[in-house]
Amino acid sequence: MALSRVCWARAALWGAAVTPGPYVTRKLQLARPRAGLAWGAPRYLFPRQLLIQHFWTPKQQIDFLDIYHALRKQSHPEILGYLERVIPLVSDAGLRWHMTELCTKIQHGTHPAIHDILALRECFSNHPLGMNQLHALQMKALSRAMLLTPYLPSFLLRHRLKTHTTVIHQLDRALAKLGIGHLTPQEVKSACYLRGLNSTHIAEERCRTWLGEWLQISCSLKEAELSLLLHNVVLLSINYTGSRR
């Protein structure tokens, strides 16, 4: 049973990390020629939509993953702006201070420490940032950060985000049991990319360090706190050395 879970975890790493949601593919397909530059999708990149990842050349892999990351990175300012706006709604003064400090650090380009993020787990388990309390606009932005379509009713967006975050949480537990040291370099980079980091331009050891930080946060969270894991796609990746492209 344990071995099958590890195999499932590895299969999920390869599949989910390089396969965009329908939002990305359809958005690029429907874009008019004059809007092509805004999406950063030169015409020679059509193999990205016609061929599975197995047939991409090494250069295409880097180019395509850069494009997908650029798409999801567009949602980062909106997600961070929403966190800043809800600070006054946090009832606990200590949590308000921690949230303000975290947002300030990130806005100034600092990579947050693990304890900076875990200190806010209570904010993300209920009002105003619990999974069931997120507003529609924030769920749309988070969906884009996960390369999922934002063009769904609110209840479907919430259900989809819950489902994807729960799967990642389960993968994290499996990876923690397996140990990062047992992953190949490509598996490490795929795992990081799936969780929000543009690992294509970061050294393997730096990726392993980042993945270790992510797993430490994830494995500390309960199911009711998974909204923090969802936001961690942005919080932990946005200022990591080598990831700002």
Automatic annotation (TrEMBL):
Domain Letm1 RBD: 71-245
Cellular component, GO annotation: mitochondrial inner membrane
Keywords: Membrane, Mitochondrion, Mitochondrion inner membrane, Transmembrane, Transmembrane helix
GO BP field: intracellular monoatomic cation homeostasis
Membrane-related topology note: Single-pass membrane protein
Pfam name, any one: LETM1_RBD
InterPro entries named in the record: LETM1-like_RBD, LETM1/MDM38-like
Superkingdom in the source lineage: Eukaryota
Gene that encodes the chain: LETMD1
PANTHER family: LETM1 DOMAIN-CONTAINING PROTEIN 1, LEUCINE ZIPPER-EF-HAND CONTAINING TRANSMEMBRANE PROTEIN
Any one GO molecular-function label of the UniProt entry: ribosome binding
Record's protein name: LETM1 domain-containing protein 1 isoform X8
Biological classification of the source: Eukaryota, Metazoa, Chordata, Craniata, Vertebrata
Cellular localization per UniProt: Mitochondrion inner membrane
